[in-house]
Amino acid sequence: MLSHSVVMHLLGASETVGTDLEPLAHPESLKVAVRNSVKSIVRDILSPFEDHSQLRERLNHLVSMHSFSLANLASLGIKYLAPFDLTTRRLPGEYDFVYSNAVLEHVPAEDLKPLLHNLVASLAPGGTMIHCIHLEDHKDLERAPFAFLSADARHFGRTVQASRGNRVRSSEWKRIFDNLEGVRCRPMYEWRRDDVPLPSRVDPSVVYADEEDLRVSHLGVVVERER
Fold first, then answer.
1. Domains recognised in the chain with CATH numbers
2. Interior CA angle at 10 toward 126 and 133, to 5°?
């Protein structure tokens, strides 16, 4: 979470806000990551999106920092809110860009609509959200990425969804995003796994269109708020 915020800081964001349902961040671990990074590679990767001299100045400042406490990060505009439940309240203020990577699949299915509604409410006019969603069973990503599709809904409650994934398939994700008000949504990518078998039984609680829909493993969605 904080690593994403650091990248946004390097790219020139005046303020970033990272959230967690529970306090999980270890800010001092950033010291090791920053100081052990290959600085030229960091600059080369990010330079198409920001002035190279500005990148160098910000990165050098991070390397020189003696402490990566939350207070010191906040002085750079890198803020961390936890515990913070986006299903019950929106973020303070308005933001130009919202990003999540392998997060939404851990949100219990019943909480997705209020969470996304609150994110849209926190998005500034003309702002953009990008969500990268991992649709596989997190219990065994390599060998049995679709095993959870057969699990009985009675034993697939909120705690299991948060751990293994909420089982929401690509077609249902698209429907949820398309029903958001005041924004335009478009897919960024959609990948499928054809190298492993599907379970012989799919629980009736799983909403899907066809076999291809079941096999989607990764989905990227861009959400743009109208000006």
1. 1-84 (no CATH), 86-227 (3.40.50)
2. 60
